[in-house]
Prior knowledge:
heterodimer; A: 455 residues; mainly alpha; globular; B: 262 residues; 2 domains; three-stranded antiparallel β-sheet; two-stranded parallel ribbon
Amino acid sequence: MVFSSLTFLCLFLPAFLLAYLAIPKLRTVTLVVFSLLFYAFGEPVWVLALLFSSVVDYVNGLIIEKFPSPRVKKLALASSLIINLGMLASFKYSGFVIENINALFGLSIAAPGFSLPLGISFYTFQTLSYTIDVYRGEIKPQRSFLAFLSYVTMFPQLVAGPIVRYADIEQALTRRRVTLEGFSRGAARFAVGLGKKVLLANPAGEAASVLFAGSRMTVLGSWLGIVFFAFQIYFDFSGYSDMAIGLGGMIGFDFKENFRYPYTADSVADFWRRWHISLTTFFRDYVYIPLGGNRRRQALNLVIVWLLTGLWHGASWNFIIWGGYYCVVLLAEKFLLKSILSRVPGVLRRACSLFMVLIGWAIFYFTDISRLGGFFISAFGGARLYDFRVTSVFFTNIFLLAVLIIASTPLPSRLAARLRARFPVAEPIGIALLMISCFTMLVGQTYNPFLYFRF
Amino acid sequence: MKYVSAAVFCAVLLAFVVGVTVFPRDTRTVENENRSFNRLPELSVKGVLAGSFAEGVEPWISDRVVRRADFISVALAVSNGYGAPPPSYAQRQPGEPEGFGRVRDPLLVFDDRLMRIFSLNSHLAAEYVAVINEYRAALPENVRIFSLLPPTQIEFTPERYRDISDSERDAIAAVYKSLDDGVIPVDAYSEIAAHRDEYLYFRTDHHWTALGAYYAYRAFSAAAGFEPKALSEYEETAMPDFLGFYFNMEPSERLRAQPDPI
Lengths: 455, 262
């Protein structure tokens, strides 16, 4: 199930909130039951994998605490790592690995036809972070399996993050308070996230796909396509994070921010401090720093972390190239360009950073390497400048484009805050307007005529 | 004000619940989309585990939305409001398509007509040629074989729209060239092009009008060597209110209000 669907808005969420708010004593049970239903709705069989991963790390956490012997602790940690990463690798990367082995050695081993269970990249990382933190003595393990299960499975963050650290919500798992303040703020946040997804990300995505659907690429078409994709992925992902944070706020959880206006970044390094923050901090705390961080072999550590980051995003060579690309750019920024960058005016720095990010998105978008090559050829002059497809998409989305640009900055948020301060009634009106317009657009997307040729 | 925000949010959710449960379904869905209402799939263990039950929930709910057709119209109007016509649209002459031409593959969508963007499928063209040549080889000489490939509406739109479409004229010429010498190609293109400003194509369908067919008939008669009947010799009848195949793909109130007569 996705948040931006009629099923979620008209059935699931109302039912959940009713049950959750009406019976305060059973809140955690309600949360777990509905979360498992939410997950099973999209993944009726592999909900078992989710439960399995939860049991493994719940048990390992307790073992690490209970047994004083360092060997036992290490064993528990190792089993958690092997099982979680093993699950992730099998489901996500087995096909990719086998394809490459076949290509390399001329074999034809049958690739296992696993479809990737929903959210596995998120929840395996989440349970891993728990076990590692218990091992490091940073947190005490959770004794109640129900509470632990609620940590792993709670539906606001289960399928698309943010990756929530146990320490951040430990208190709230067993002792949370649902307040009117938290609920209203969460509701407003949810409405904004829904709006970003339905009103901004979806049309941006459509524009991008029309631009890339033509049999002929053009220079401007390539760039405009990637610009729309860049907006799509930002508003989609940050909108989803907003909805997650909003829902969490409504039920008494305080999740950390996952995005901080990444397209206003000053440098590529800055971009990565603003984009998918929960993932980058995960890699920093659990891979980069243990490897030595910036104290020894910094360059090598960065290469490892970035290749893994790329690989996490998908089992395809373009994602690995994407990770490698950012590694190179970040190393260059850090070691070669530091002095140049500090002397360049802010506007130019931001423009350059955006340009590098756009190229990154192009690598990210084209999973087919030949199409990726085709993109770069046409983007850098190997095609005509533009055609009617570009004109049509640009002009039919010109207002949208303006809104997308403005909405990527803190400006609308500041204006909304000022408006709310002067006219408090603006908030409920805004919530209602957003929810109703998103509902309308979602219904519009269900238009499904039966087409058949009549001769 | 936090009370009001929370209350409004809950009220909206309640409205959603009511909107998909209490009211009867919108019968316009059946008319407009040429299908029956989506039913909730049968709740069986097999269905649930295969995911087919879950997949069927969203279509079922969406058909239950009260006054669904109105929401769809509003959504369409909003989608169309994301932009404005390009400056070149000011050069539009009367008779040219209205509206600024949205690319919604496989169609090119104007305010007053819809047409398909042509994309040459060389594979299919080669198959076509191969089959016809086979027939020519298999049939005796006295059986004449003609090939008539007509252009579609997009060939006759203003130049500025056509660079997204492959040239049908070139494609037709290439196919005719590959045909066996014993196959007689019919140049319907020139005849239709000569009358391009007339009402030759439907506004919302992939078919040509009877008039368009007539001009192709004239071209055919020239290739076949007989005198065509004059247009005036035919009796004219009209069936009004035709909304064609493309209309289902890209409906709009404007197009609905301007149906074609057959």
